[in-house]
Amino acid sequence: MSYGSNLVNAYHQVGVYAGKVLKGGDPAEMPMVQQSDKLELVLNANTAKNLGLTVPPTFLARADEVLD
Asked: What is the DSSP letter of 45?
C-alpha cells in the first residue's frame, strides 16, 4: 500500500513552474518547494493476499489504483 503524490501531477507542476520562469517571473519570489495538490492511494492486492491480509471492500473502493 502506498499513499503519496501523483507523479503525472508532479511533472505538470514542474511545467507550470518552468512556464512562469520563462514568461519572466522572478524565481527568487516563487516558492522553492510546492506540495502536491493530488495524492493517491495504491494497493497491491496480490501482496496483501500473499501476506494473509484481508482488505475490506470499502478500502478497495477508496483506492485510486488496485494492482493485482
From this structure: H
* Closest by Cα among 61, 2, 7, 65 to 38: 7
Spatial neighbors of 20 by CB under 8 A, at least 6 apart, are 30
Query: CA nearest 9: which of 29, 46, 27, 35?
Result: 35
Q: What is the pTM of this model?
A: 0.65
pLDDT (tens digit, 9 = 90+) per residue, 47-66? 999 999 999 999 999 999 99
State the Cα–Cα distance between residues 61 and 31, nearest whole angstrom: 35
